[in-house]
Every structure is written in structure tokens, then in C-alpha cells.
């Protein structure tokens, strides 16, 4: 069933590290042609490309600040040009950009968080439409978060709200684009042990989160990949549309 990935043309945004890197590597290992997007982390992104190539896959780098509308459009178009078209868009780029209390939120922080986590998803999806239409269909997979449902931890209000936007956008896009053969779904990771939490969470916060997870441990980036693989594989999920798959060790059971 995974033979369908051979030659599939995929763009993964935010693919230099964490979940995005793990997804890009897995898709590449299955024979997909992968555009590995990054903003600042060139060396890490190149390492992902090299890992895909060493496994026998094909991969290209594409750089850009996806929080800016013109840049994200260029990123998508450049990726499609490198790949010879586009079949799958994984909107994974995002970040909390610091824990900020309500009293300390200013316009700059609001714009930074919303531009990176919301604008990038909307504009990348819009930019992908002509390429999907040319291909006769497509598949969009957004990265949401458990924070979209539980509100996030201290200082994460903007990030959690941005991810709630992404989850709801998933449902609307799925309705709007289904008639064109374009499926839209999302994956909502829970507390995953990546550098995201190294940057934004202290040991006490991580231990408090772990204590709420029935499986008794944090997840890994690699443990999130299966949900993306499922949603991207037509023979497995061809009738799955507008869904948000929770991957959180049982921390949230909606």
C-alpha cells in the first residue's frame, strides 16, 4: 500500500527539526520526492535532505519566512517547480515564540505568533491550490496541537488560540475543497519531546505535563509520523476528510 508514495511530490514546511523533520524523512524513505522547507536552520535542513538521499530518496531544500504572505507563496511555488508539481502539502511550520502572559501581550507578539502559526497555513494552502488543480487533486495535512483543545499552558494563550484556528480551518477547507479531489486533515500532537519544549518549557512544567499522560511518558517526533503517513496515504485514508487526529498518549480523549 505504501508503494503509492514512490514519486509523490511533497512539501513539508518547518522540516528542519522535530516533527517536520521526522515526517520528511519518513516520506522520503518511502520514495516520495520531498521539498524540505526551513527558515533559519540551514544545516539542520541540509541534514534532513542528506538523510533522505542516503536512504535512496530525493529531496530539495527550500528556504523562506512563511510568516510573510509573499514569502510563503514563493516557497510553495519554488517547491512545486523543484518537484515538478505538488501532491501533498504538510503545513507544519509553527512555534510558540515564547510564553507571554495576557498582561504582557503587545501588538508585536500578537502579530508574530499569528503570522507564523495562522497566516502561514492559510497562505501556503492558497498558494498550493493551482498546483493541486493542475495535478487533478491534492492532500493537505496541517499540524495543530493539543493546545487547540485544552487552551495550552501558562503563557501559551496566543499559540493555543492560533492552533484552534488551524483545527477549525481544517474543517472548513475540507468542505470547500472536497469537490476538487483535495482532502484536508490535521494532526494534533500532545506533549512531544522536541526542542520546542527545550525552548519554551522548564523541567517542572514538563513533569507536570507528564503526570497527566496515562501512558506515563512524553511522545517522540517519530511517534507522530504514523498519523501523517495515514492521512497522506490514499489507500488508507481516502475517505477521511476534515479530521484532526490527536496524538498525545491519552492526555486528551475528545
Task: Tell me what you see in this structure.
This protein has 254 residues and is α/β, with parallel strands linked by helices. It has one domain (2-246): NAD(P)-binding Rossmann-like Domain (Rossmann fold, 3-Layer(aba) Sandwich). The protein has helices at 18-29, 42-54, 69-83, 107-135, 147-150, 157-177, 195-200, 203-210, 221-232, 234-237, and strands at residues 9-12, 33-38, 58-63, 88-91, 138-143, 182-189, 244-247.
Key phrases:
254 residues; alpha/beta; Rossmann fold; seven-stranded parallel β-sheet; 10 helices; 49% helix; globular
Topology-level CATH name: Rossmann fold
Apparent shape: globular
Q: Average the pLDDT over all residues and give the rounded result.
A: 95
As a percent range, the share of strand residues is 5-15%
CATH superfamily: NAD(P)-binding Rossmann-like Domain
Q: Which architecture per CATH? A: 3-Layer(aba) Sandwich
Percent helix: 40-55%
Q: Which radius of gyration do the C-alpha atoms yield?
A: 17 Å
**Helix-strand makeup class:** alpha/beta
Separation, N- and C-terminal Cα atoms: 30 Å
Number of domains: 1
Task: Please state the oligomeric state of the protein chains shown.
Answer: single chain
Instruction: Report the top-level CATH class.
Output: Alpha Beta
Summarize the helix and strand pattern as letters: EHEHEHEHEHHEHHHHE
Question: How would you concisely characterize the structure shown here?
Answer:
By secondary structure, the chain is of the alpha/beta class.
Amino acid at each position: 500500500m505504501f508503494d503509492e508514495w514512490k514519486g509523490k511530490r511533497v512539501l513539508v514546511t518547518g522540516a528542519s527539526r522535530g516533527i517536520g523533520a521526522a515526517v520528511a524523512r519518513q516520506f522520503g524513505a518511502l520514495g516520495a520526492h520531498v521539498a524540505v522547507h526551513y527558515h533559519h536552520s540551514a544545516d539542520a535542513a541540509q541534514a534532513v535532505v542528506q538523510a533522505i538521499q542516503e536512504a535512496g530518496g530525493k529531496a530539495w531544500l527550500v528556504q523562506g519566512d512563511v510568516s510573510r504572505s509573499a514569502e510563503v507563496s514563493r516557497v510553495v511555488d519554488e517547491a512545486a517547480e523543484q518537484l515538478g508539481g505538488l501532491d501533498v502539502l504538510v503545513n507544519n511550520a509553527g512555534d510558540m515564540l515564547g510564553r507571554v502572559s495576557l498582561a504582557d501581550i503587545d501588538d508585536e507578539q500578537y502579530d508574530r505568533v499569528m503570522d507564523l502559526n495562522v497566516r502561514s497555513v492559510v497562505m501556503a494552502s492558497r498558494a498550493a491550490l493551482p498546483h493541486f488543480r493542475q495535478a487533478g487533486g491534492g492532500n493537505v495535512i496541517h499540524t495543530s496541537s493539543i493546545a487547540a483543545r485544552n487552551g495550552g499552558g501558562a503563557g501559551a494563550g496566543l499559540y493555543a488560540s492560533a492552533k484552534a484556528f488551524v483545527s477549525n480551518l481544517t474543517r472548513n477547507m475540507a468542505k470547500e475543497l472536497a469537490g476538487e479531489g483535495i482532502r484536508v486533515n490535521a494532526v494534533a500532537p500532545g506533549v512531544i519531546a522536541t526542542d520546542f519544549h527545550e525552548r519554551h518549557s522548564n523541567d517542572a512544567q514538563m513533569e507536570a505535563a507528564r503526570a497527566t499522560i496515562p501512558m506515563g511518558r512524553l511522545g517522540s517526533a517519530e511517534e507522530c509520523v504514523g498519523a501523517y503517513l495515514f492521512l497522506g496515504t490514499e489507500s488508507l485514508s481516502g475517505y477521511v476528510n476534515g479530521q484532526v487526529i490527536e496524538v498525545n498518549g491519552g492526555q486528551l480523549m475528545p
